[in-house]
Amino acid sequence: MSKWPIGVFASIDAGLGVKLEVAQELGVPTIQLHAPEQATRTPENAEKFLARLQELGIELTAVFGGFEGESYADIPTVCETVGLVPAATRAARTREMKEIADFAKLLKCEVVALHLGFVPHDTESPLYQEVLEVTRDICNHCQANGQRLHLETGQESADGLLQFIQDVGCDNLFVNFDPANMILYGTGEPIEALKKIGKYVRSIHCKDATWAANPGQEWGAEVPLGAGDVGMENYLRTLNELGYDGPLTIEREIPQEPERQKAEIGGAVRLLEELRAKVL
Ligand code: MG
Question: Which residues of the chain have pLDDT under 50?
Answer without folding.
Answer: none
